[in-house]
Amino acid sequence: MLKIIVCFKWVIDEADIKVSGKSRELDLSRVAYKISDYDRNAIEEAVRLQEQLGGSVVAVTVGPPTAKQSLKDALSRGPEKAVFVSDPAFDSLEPAQTAAILAEVITKNLEYDLIICGEGSSDLYAQQVGPRLAEKLGIPCATYVEKIIIKDKELIAERKMRDGIEVVSMPLPALVTVMPTINTPRIPSLKQVLGAAKKPVVNLSAKDLEGKYEPCLKTTSLLAATMERKRIKFTDDPQDIRKVVDALLKEGVIS
Amino acid sequence: MPGVWVIAENSNYTLELLSKGLEIANELNEKLVAFSFGNEELANDYISCGADEVFVLPALNRELPFEAYVPLIVAEAKKEMPEAIIVCATQRGTELASRVAAGLNTGLATGCISVRVDKGNLVMERLVFGGAAVQTVICTTRPQMAAIPPGTYEKAQPREDRRGQIKVVAGNVETKVKVVERRKKEQEEIDLTEAKIIVSVGRGFEKQEDISLARELARLLGGEVGCTRPIAEELHWLPEERYMGISGKKVKPDLYIGLGVSGQVQHVTGIRDAKIIMAVNTDENAPIFDAADYGIVGNLYDVVPKLMTEIKAALNK
Lengths: 255, 317
Ligand SMILES: Cc1cc2nc3c(=O)[nH]c(=O)nc-3n(C[C@H](O)[C@H](O)[C@H](O)COP(=O)(O)OP(=O)(O)OC[C@H]3O[C@@H](n4cnc5c(N)ncnc54)[C@H](O)[C@@H]3O)c2cc1C
Known about the structure:
Chain A: One of its GO terms (molecular function) is electron transfer activity. Chain A: It comes from Desulfofundulus thermosubterraneus DSM 16057. Chain A: It holds the Pfam family ETF. Chain A: Residues 23-213 form the Electron transfer flavoprotein alpha/beta-subunit N-terminal domain. The complex is a heterodimer of chains A (255) and B (317). In chain A, 27% of the residues lie in helices and 34% in strands. Chain A is built from 6 helices and 15 strands. In chain A, strands 11-10-9-12-8-1-6-7-13 form a 9-stranded mixed beta sheet, with helices on both faces. In chain A, helix 2 packs across helix 5 (190-196) and helix 3 crosses helix 4 (129-137). Chain B has 2 domains: 4-168, 3-Layer(aba) Sandwich (Rossmann fold); 192-315, 3-Layer(aba) Sandwich (Rossmann fold). Chain B has 9 helices and 16 strands. In chain B, helix 3 crosses helix 4 and helix 5 (211-221) runs parallel beside helix 9. The longest helix of chain B is centred in the first third of the chain and has 18 residues, at 11-28. Chain B starts with a strand and ends with a helix. The relative contact order of chain B is 0.11. At the A-B interface, helix 3, helix 4, strand 9, strand 10 and strand 11 of A face helix 4, strand 5, strand 7, strand 8 and strand 11 of B. Flavin-adenine dinucleotide binds at residues 130, 202-204, 228-231, 243, 245-248, 260-262, 264, 266-267, 270, 280-283, 286, 299-301 of chain B.
């Protein structure tokens, strides 16, 4: 029986970010939130392993109180329990803090054989929380994993590297961070969505933590990455298309 | 003198970091330290390329992964207390850097697109929100750490007159993680980052065979075919080396032509440096039109043949 912990983050949907005027400032006033993309793969993988091998899946997230909305979404994807560590100060944690908080919460509250994280979050994409957490817990880890096989108390993972695939093995307990190519997350059924509300959630706050987790990084600016483009639109009629070809010739980009 | 350390999984990447490391070490007024893994000969190369000191770590058994060095590097850093550690952000490098940072309770900025020094701090820029924004960070703890992707800097050049020290670091390399197999990737024969014209295939294509349409257009223009991530990673219609974006290739062609590409920020981030962007999409509200110089609202199956006719006429082909 495998005890699995899956960590996820509730993030801004980057597709909703607007830029305010010419200032390059980000306008976040109308953004929706989502479970970070690769964390959906992490949850899916945890649930698939549980389906294959039996055991349990607990989903853990650290964030501001508004991230409460994420719990139902996460639980509808299959885990049977969630742990929600929240505080208004957890609004813009940097990876060193998130990993240290997770390490304390997991050590004190949860048993595990395997911890699964996404390779990186779709907002900061620091790729640090998984390996930092493994280091804090003193367990082996494999990052950038595309395939997981578990045999007895051994984990075999295929890591996708720049230069090819590296297959590694390690004893459990262990931590893996998964790539989006590892699986295709299922869409929760209506029954699962309804059932999620009834699943248990353990709520913890900063007061329940012993450690003081100060940031090691300071953000000094956050600006839109803008691009100057002409943004001229044409229709599909041949005359318009000829205009586009003429423009490309004039720009000197085709010859 | 605590030093600026550069760490990379192979010698080419170490040389790239040495050229940036030299600049950073000068500005911080620190010595520059490079790491050589089980190879004393390389240590001399690193010295002639700017390292004041090279730490030579024991060679790895073949079944051990590069990250097995984490405990040794952490122990060494606790003794020497370097001012800054710069790591080449391959996947292995990023894992190693994260774990070293955790072991030292210090901050790390990964995926840096630029690093400079200001008042003793590394000022590090990185992309966030899928490339929609640039975050600038500094590290408030020491050592300050940055992970910078390979290919960001030119390799440092050797100079005869440089001298430095070699320090052999002894110790056991131990880890519970064993490598059981390595499957090398076949190299693609083309390098999309060098292409002058790229015709990009998006999910607007209905079938794999239809990519021939993009190929014909590319051939007519003397360009290459590239794609979005789902075409490569999900549908496997084209090799991974051909997809562009924040997690794929960053390209800089004179002309990028997106066909059936929606233009999500993660893709657009890879084509920001294109001189001209042109796009064909049926949806007039597709985000690609905000990123394009010339947009044609229409069905690619109808527009591409017409476009080829016009190009042939204009270029007398
Ligand atoms: C963390 C993260 C990293 C990512 N990294 C990358 C990356 O590096 N590169 C990347 O490409 N993506 C990346 N993605 C995925 C990205 O968000 C988009 O999902 C992807 O780029 C969309 O690909 P597409 O444009 O081919 O498909 P779609 O978004 O499905 O768009 C298809 C488009 O084709 C149009 N269309 C349909 N039929 C026709 C027709 N007959 N003629 C003309 N137009 C037609 C549609 O209007 C639509 O706009 C990443 C995502 C995440 C979460």
